[in-house]
Amino acid sequence: MLNALSLRRAAHFGDEGDEHQEDGSKTRKQLSIAMRVTNYLTRTGYLWPIILLAILIFVIASLFLHSRDLVCVSSISSFDRLSRTRFFGLDGLESDFGSLGVPWCRSKHGKTIEWTSKDLLQGLEEFVPIYETRPIKNNMYGMGFDHSFGLWFITRWLKPELMIESGAFKGHSTWVLRQAMPNTPIISLTPRHPSKYLMKGPAYVDHNCTYFAGKDFVDFGNVNWSTVMKKHGVTDLTRVLIFFDDHQNELKRLKQAHKAGFSHLVFEDNYDTGTGDHYSLRQICDQFYIQGGGHSCFKDSDEARQRSRRKNFWEKAVDIEGLCGPGEAWWGVKGYMRDDFNHTNKQISYTQHFENSRFVESVVDVYWEVPPVAGPSLTHQTRYDPARVSCPIVEDGRFGLFQRLGLSRLETSVFNGYTQMVYVEMSPKEM
Ligand SMILES: C[S@@+](CC[C@H](N)C(=O)[O-])C[C@H]1O[C@@H](n2cnc3c(N)ncnc32)[C@H](O)[C@@H]1O
Ligand SMILES: *[C@@H]1O[C@H](CO)[C@@H](O)[C@H](O)[C@H]1NC(C)=O
Ligand SMILES: *[C@@H]1O[C@H](CO)[C@@H](O)[C@H](O)[C@H]1NC(C)=O
Ligand SMILES: *[C@@H]1O[C@H](CO)[C@@H](O)[C@H](O)[C@H]1NC(C)=O
What we know:
By secondary structure, the protein is an alpha/beta fold. It has two domains: 2-67, no CATH class; 86-426, no CATH class. The chain contains 17 helices and nine strands. The strands form two sheets. Strands 3-2-1-4-5-9-8 form a seven-stranded mixed beta sheet, with helices on both faces. Helix 7 runs parallel beside helix 8. The longest helix has 23 residues, at 47-69. S-adenosylmethionine binds at residues 139, 141-143, 166-169, 172-173, 189-192, 219, 245-248.
């Protein structure tokens, strides 16, 4: 898709050039000025440095433009629907990424991430061999490949001074953070110490990690962060990265982190509307004014038909009956705001749901969902529905690339845990 877009852009620039040439008089005038300037520069020896500078500016500008292309604008138009259906050899199964819309949280100033698809591809190439050395091979109930890569990539890009993790389980994510930053301290909050799992099988305990675990466990919201930061010598909270994989209401976590003055957060399970065991940012920002956001419980609609068809193919796809609760409540999960692994849940009104998104948008500067690593024809994943997901890093059909990156060496099961992991940057709280 990137290539197609840049080609289109190049063609567009060509058109503009032609337009100018039609206006002969203007061109001639410009030419004579340009020639005079060129002659002068050649004489004075400035021509080449200036050409180099222009090329450099062009390269930087195109990098900047590419980073904006990362959002899957419309995979339907970029890939012929029919050929894809044929490709899968299954009538009615459209794996078009994002065809049912991919809701996102709007950022106040339109700020986006700095990294490009190319950076992600490069990262993948580097990460696959690292992932193969993971201590916990079978991480059921924990992170699979897509999110492990996302967390590693984001962490390595941001290079935090301190990493905080909430929800460690056997310690796989602690290990991922450690691979990204070999000498950076970690704080891990998790009720059961990962060393407890060592008795039954593989687990990872980090030697540069402060564990708030076992009898020392404290919930993220009850930690006195200013004291802990002082103890770790951290003065700039924007240099801290927080990773949440604790299945708590993400609105609650976002508020707690914002109040404490943090700004870089990653949420592992960013469940789509109608799914999951806690209220997620994706759910919160699923609103009528967002593409793919807001839903109708009308059973005889395009969305309803598409959803029910896709439910036959993808385990996590939800149909309208699954989406809508009493009183046609579709937000959250059937109108409920779930929390703490669904141990508690609260019915919320549409107005409250709407206000929640307004709050999130008022503090979020960047919202970026980690794309799935590769299309389902390559990974053979069967769970997430591509229709609600952004374009994968390696698109369907690109088996050569998939193989070259070493991804074909991994077991299929590691690709089955994608739930739209998200990175958010919040504006620092005014102190
Ligand atoms: C899905 S697992 C985490 C998986 C892990 N990040 C990995 O990479 O495999 C969720 C973890 O959150 C822990 N947990 C439960 N309540 C928590 C809380 N309030 N704060 C932090 N962790 C919590 C659970 O004990 C469990 O270990
Ligand atoms: C722990 O991290 C510090 C930097 O914060 C580093 O100097 C030290 O070598 C690390 N210790 C171990 C055991 O990795
Ligand atoms: C954290 O601890 C400090 C020092 O003990 C105290 O002054 C501050 O009020 C505490 N903050 C909170 C939010 O409890
Ligand atoms: C979540 O909790 C609600 C209410 O207790 C229950 O009806 C529902 O079945 C639970 N869902 C899951 C997936 O555990």
